[in-house]
Amino acid sequence: xxxxxxxxxxxxxxxxxxxxxxxxxxxxxxxxxxxxxxxxxxxxxxxxxxxxxxxxxxxxxxxxxxxxxxxxxxxxxxxxxxxxxxxxxxxxxxxxxxxxxxxxxxxxxxxxxxxxxxxxxxxxxxxxxxxxxxxxxxxxxxxxxxxxxxxxxxxxxxxxxxxxxxxxxxxxxxxxxxxxxxxxxxxxxxxxxxxxxxxxxxxxxxxxxxxxxxxxxxxxxxxxxxxxxxxxxxxxxxxxxxxxxxxxxxxxxxxxxxxxxxxxxxxxxxxxxxxxxxxxxxxxxxxxxxxxxxxxxxxxxxxxxxxxxxxxxxxxxxxxxxxxxxxxxxxxxxxxxxxxxxxxxxxxxxxxxxxxxxxxxxxxxxxxxxxxxxxxxxxxxxxxxxxxxxxxxxxxxxxxxxxxxxxxxxx
Length: 411
What we know:
By secondary structure, this protein is α/β, with parallel strands linked by helices. It has 13 helices and 14 strands.
């Protein structure tokens, strides 16, 4: 088994014993370690591979500036910026194959930035006293990060916290050895959806695109899925996107499960061709076992399961969503086609279904027509988004893009 090198990051002035324990477990399993100190005031018991001074300088500052700020939050943000920069630099140089970061609230704040800087597929583990806590906003959690609660580990080693630390050390090394890093032997298509019960186009589109020589990744647009989609779009990983489930835009507007303010923007910034449709535009998803957002408390809703409930927007709010979608598409640097299925945009809104609202759909369609930016081609379809006619037209648009050289041919 080939050795892998794991980056261990933390405040070595206060967590020296714990961080060295992690290194020892990894070494005992045959792995290598590269250490990074992100402390500000104190020093480690022995030099680390990446010093706190190097980290601060990578963040465009210095340890002295962090100290002189007189503010622990400002100081840690300097270190977070530097740690993220250095981690990515080390990964690109082939010096690390995974990362583990240890901390309380301060270290976890930094860890989220560090892990977010690394591409999807790089093993990332955070050992934290606040793992899975509501303190962690979903939009800051990297799409493929793993977390474990640092139970009983706020100060010093003991048998309780060693159980967490040793698991994390073994997990990140095992992941680095086992991971199949995404390859690029076929052009990649990014597609969003909300599950086969409510949006079904991927059932026919995925095999059709694969037959054309493309790889297709379908993202579950419930917050974290959208984060992963946007992360890859920002890297320029997609040859084209079929962004047919942008309800995370509405979620962000109305207090639901947000994928972040940059949802539906990164493909456009990278010039990636975008085929867009408003699947589930009329729904705001929220945590089913919590009270709905106050603005949506009295709305019709659908309990998808015990975890997720979707509230229905009224006509005025649907117009807001239409303007938001069009506003995001207006900044695109590549081709954009906006498909508008006037027969409905999710399985629950068909005539006779429990969330059908003909007036609300009409208001949304009217606003799309008014707000559609000049850089986007608008295609109206007298069909439902789950009808074969919708998928067939989407493929026809895509095939035209390939024929015109806007999208590279499949392998």
